[in-house]
Specification:
The protein is built from 11 helices and 9 strands. It is α/β, with parallel strands linked by helices. The chain has a 5-stranded parallel beta sheet with strand order 7-6-5-8-9, sandwiched between helices. Strand 1, helix 2 (63-74) and strand 2 form a beta-alpha-beta unit. The mean pLDDT is 91.
Length: 312
């Protein structure tokens, strides 16, 4: 399938910040191979048939969880699924106890989503299993950034030199940080755009452009990655109302058609249709949102496969 001599520099996938540019390029190349597999009549390959993978989701997830499960099944791994509401999980011992009980079943790899930033790093220091971070709080979501970069690569042939605007709720988004780190390592230019209250102060230190006007950001970029407003993470009001946010930062077909060039529209999902993006934009030919979903399975297959190679 893939050149066995090429390996990731890390045993876990805890965040984009732990990956080298070469790691990211290897994952994207491997995902390209797996995307071809997914388009065959027989989509299953026996690469991970000796591995047991536990999916631990301490926070609700539909798309990421299904995408990982499908990737694991396509690679013929054995799967254990564990779901828990965030309210029943405390930060320290409960997490270790839960995981240790699962690892006692001889699990090789753990895919984990957790409401606390750094949960994957914490776990990697206390268990022998390989850890894949499927989202930790508002910190990182590495496989989403990888599939976004892969989607841009598939659309344009390369990521280097592309201008990508990440628009919306940057403050509460784990997708934004992972995307910024991933895109910069691949040589893209990145801008963040949103209300001042939803752009964290530290973001300027990452070397990204900051813009508060949607039209300016759209005129600058090749790709607009529209983030959803994460009301479930907001304890206070960061803007007067959703209606006002939509008027200032919502992307509709009229705005899209008014640009003097054709840009590509992305969204990590789930979409709040009519808030950050209208249905006619989400379903337009400029949208690659469904391609992102398809590419997510190929990217997660690549990550699982390459990490499994580290065990040998």
């Amino acid at each position: 399938m893939v050149d066995q001599a090429q390996q990731l520099s890390t045993k876990h996938l805890l965040g984009i910040k732990y990956l080298t540019k070469e790691d990211i390029e290897l994952i994207l190349r491997t995902a390209g191979t797996f995307k071809e597999v997914l388009n065959r009549p027989i989509k299953k390959i026996p690469s991970l048939r000796d591995l047991t993978i536990a999916n631990l989701f301490f926070e609700n997830s539909t798309r990421t969880k299904l995408s990982f499960e499908l990737a694991e099944k396509r690679l013929s791994a054995d799967i254990i699924n564990f779901s828990s509401s965030a309210s029943s999980v405390s930060k320290g011992e409960t997490l270790i106890d839960t995981v240790n009980n699962i690892l006692a079943m001889r699990v090789d790899m753990v895919v984990m989503r957790h409401p606390y930033a750094g949960a994957g790093v914490f776990l990697s220091k206390h268990t022998k299993a390989q850890i894949i971070n499927a989202g930790d709080g508002a910190h990182e979501h590495p496989t989403q950034a990888l599939l976004d970069a892969f989607s841009i690569h598939q659309k344009y042939g390369e990521v280097r030199g592309r201008k990508v605007a990440i628009i919306g709720d940057i403050l509460h988004s784990r997708v934004a940080l992972s995307n910024i780190l991933c895109l910069q390592k691949l040589g893209a230019e990145v801008m963040v755009c949103g209300p001042t209250t939803l752009i964290p102060k530290y973001i300027a230190s990452l070397g990204v452009k900051i813009e508060h006007h949607l039209q300016t950001a759209l005129n600058w970029c090749d790709v607009a990655n529209m983030l959803r407003i994460q009301l479930e993470r907001q304890e206070i009001n960061y803007f007067p109302s959703l209606r006002e946010y939509t008027m200032m930062y919502g992307l509709n077909k009229h705005i899209l058609d008014s640009l003097d060039k054709e840009i590509t529209v992305m969204h990590p999902g789930p979409i709040n249709r009519g808030v950050e993006i209208t249905s006619d934009v989400a379903d337009s030919k400029q949208s690659i949102i469904l391609d992102q979903v398809e590419n997510g399975v190929a990217i997660r297959m690549a990550v699982l496969y390459l990490l499994a190679n580290q065990q040998h």
